[in-house]
């Protein structure tokens, strides 16, 4: 099981506590924008929650950051390569300031080439499109699970179902209608998993039935937990 699938299973099962300051700040900002009815800023903010959450919950990422702080280039690069092998953080690693001490080293240049080659092997435009969908789909769910106020929670849930899920499902359905099912060899593991997650939100059963035969291995839809 890929690391992202494992974490998303946890996300759908439990409400987490003890977030980092970054995640907590993004959650507060998102809720402030929503309560102020500033949906433009809300849409700009809550998708960022997912990356921040994933970054702090994947051990390899944190171990890489720790190795850099300790001045251990080799172990840091090794952990980053493990993430790259799973198509994780292909766009974020390059710009993360935690890895600035690695810049200019031979190991870093080799890692950048690995990322570049990996992106070139995929349909990168579709990969990025699906990544945006994933950030919205999962970001709002993390946000939803942290809300204590019942009225606000109901409002976020309604927005999640009527706006986010609907828009994401429409994008995925349109994409699949144009391209057919896209395997990990075409768009990478992370984007491929987004397809699996996204089609769960397509309410039209006939559309789901048309999509499921598109992939080679059997797949049974998973009933969302707790209404999310």
Summarize the structure.
The protein is an all-alpha fold. The protein is built from twelve helices and no strands.
Task: Describe the model.
The chain is built from twelve helices and no strands. The radius of gyration is 18 Å and the shape is flat. It has helices at residues 3-13, 21-35, 39-45, 47-57, 59-69, 73-85, 106-120, 124-145, 150-179, 184-187, 189-198, 205-211. It starts with a helix and ends in a 17-residue tail after the last helix. Helix 8 (124-145) runs antiparallel to helix 9 and helix 8 packs across helix 11. The longest helix is centred in the C-terminal third of the chain and has 30 residues, at 150-179. The chain is mainly α.
User: Oligomeric form of this entry?
Assistant: single chain
Query: Mean pLDDT, as a whole number?
Result: 85
Q: Using only CA atoms, what is the Rg?
A: 18 Å
Give me the strand/helix succession.
Answer: HHHHHHHHHHHH
Helix content: 55-70%
Main sheet makeup: none
Total strand count, please? 0
Straight-line N-to-C gap: 22 Å
**Structural class, please?**
mainly alpha
Instruction: List low-pLDDT spans.
Output: 215-225
Individual helix count: 12
Can you give keywords for this protein?
228 residues; mainly alpha; 12 helices; flat
Question: How is the topology of this model organized?
Answer:
Elements: H1 3-13, H2 21-35, H3 39-45, H4 47-57, H5 59-69, H6 73-85, H7 106-120, H8 124-145, H9 150-179, H10 184-187, H11 189-198, H12 205-211
């Amino acid at each position: 099981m890929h690391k992202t699938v494992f974490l998303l299973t946890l996300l759908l099962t439990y409400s987490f506590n003890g977030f980092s300051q970054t995640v907590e700040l993004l959650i507060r900002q998102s809720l402030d924008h929503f309560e102020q009815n500033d949906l433009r800023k809300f849409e700009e903010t809550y998708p960022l929650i997912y990356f921040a959450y994933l970054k702090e919950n994947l051990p390899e990422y944190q171990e890489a950051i720790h190795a850099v702080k300790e001045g251990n280039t080799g172990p840091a690069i090794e952990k980053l390569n493990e993430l790259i092998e799973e198509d994780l953080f292909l766009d974020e690693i390059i710009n993360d300031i935690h890895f600035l001490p690695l810049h200019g080293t031979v190991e870093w240049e080799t890692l950048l080439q690995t990322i570049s080659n990996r992106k070139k092997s995929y349909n990168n435009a579709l990969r990025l499109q699906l990544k945006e969908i994933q950030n919205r789909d999962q970001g709002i769910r993390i946000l939803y699970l942290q809300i204590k106020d019942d009225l606000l929670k109901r409002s976020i849930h309604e927005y999640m179902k009527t706006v986010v899920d609907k828009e994401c499902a429409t994008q995925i359905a349109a994409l699949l209608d144009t391209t057919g099912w896209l395997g990990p060899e075409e768009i990478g593991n992370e984007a491929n998993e987004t397809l699996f997650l996204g089609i769960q939100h397509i309410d039209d059963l006939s559309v789901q039935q048309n999509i499921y035969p598109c992939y080679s291995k059997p797949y049974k839809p998973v009933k969302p937990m707790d209404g999310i």
